[in-house]
Amino acid sequence: MKFRGFTPTPFVTMLSGDFVRKDKIFSKLKPNSLHLKANKGFTLIELLVVIAIIGMLSSVVLASLNSARVKARDAKRIADLREIEKALELYFDDNGEYPTYGDIYYYAQTPRYGDYIAGGPGCGYSGAAVASGGSWCKLEEVLGPYIRALPRDETGNVQSRYVYKKPNGFDVYGLRVILENPSAISENDGGYSNNWFELGGLPSYCMENYTGSNANWSYWSYTSACQGGN
Questions:
Q1: Fewer beta carbons under 10 A from the terminal one: N or C of the chain?
Q2: Which of 9-18, 44-53, 163-172 has the lowest mean pLDDT?
Q3: For residue 86, is pLDDT > 60?
């Protein structure tokens, strides 16, 4: 059957409200049942899956970013310690010895633990021989001609991250910084602890002459080079 002005397609012809396709009649079907819904939205399950995936990706990104920040801080600490080493060698060239002022143990005290004296941030412990300033600030003062400033612990969560030790009667010293994430550099520097990056002749001396904790050159002592003695 043909209607004026209307030409049926080869596949679908509408007859009496019925749908005809290749001689097959689908009667009494709702018109929308043969069409896809163009505006179909996400289900709750689909949204939850998407949110979970985004959360997992965010966690991975944040973990990678935090790891990169730790590595950057440790790299800066290692570079800072090498700068102190250079300053100490320049001091030795001019004075024939490494700096000692009664105290043989110098360290940077962090703001979290406070300063023993009002010598400024991170000045560290003040012994009788350096009563005018904390030990780290005193070392900073004597090395002033060779280095602009000594580093402090920017994270503020370690009591003595940086340490310089020069035992009386020894012509060697020890330098160390505690790293947040030990690396191959700190594990293979020949020093006492894998968590420290160590420089100077004192770490090697203690490792060669003592074992275990007795080889700890960074042990707080006014009389001995290593925890096990001299």
A1: N
A2: 9-18
A3: yes
Residue with tokens 């110098």: 106
Residue 199 tokens read as 């420089």
Give the integer Cα–Cα distance in Å for 68 and 193.
23
C-alpha pair distances (Å), 55 with each of 48, 50, 63, 64: 10, 9, 12, 14
Domain that holds residue 141: 71-215
Any domain includes 138: yes
Across the beta sheet with 12-15, what order do the strands follow?
A: 12-15, 18-21, 24-26
Residue 132: the pLDDT is 46
Integer Cα distance of 80 and 136 in angstroms? 14
User: Tell me, what's the pLDDT at 87?
Assistant: 96
**Number of domains making up the chain:** 1
Q: What are phi and psi of 155, to 5 degrees?
A: -85, -25
Structure tokens at 143: 């090395």
Amino acid symbol at 92: F
Local structure of residue 64 (DSSP, 8 states): H
Average pLDDT value for residue range 206-225 = 86
| C-alpha atoms less than 13 angstroms from C-alpha of 28 in its C-beta half-sphere | 0
> Residue 60: CB partners within 8 Å, gap ≥ 6?
none
Q: What is the CA radius of gyration of the chain?
A: 37
**Domain for residue 94, yes or no?**
yes
Predicted pLDDT at 61: 78
Is position 153 within any domain? Answer: yes
> Which strand (E) or helix (H) includes residue 169?
none
In contact, 177 and 162? CB cutoff 8 Å = yes
Q: Within a domain: residue 123?
A: yes
**Cα–Cα distance for residue pair 23/38, rounded to 1 Å:** 28
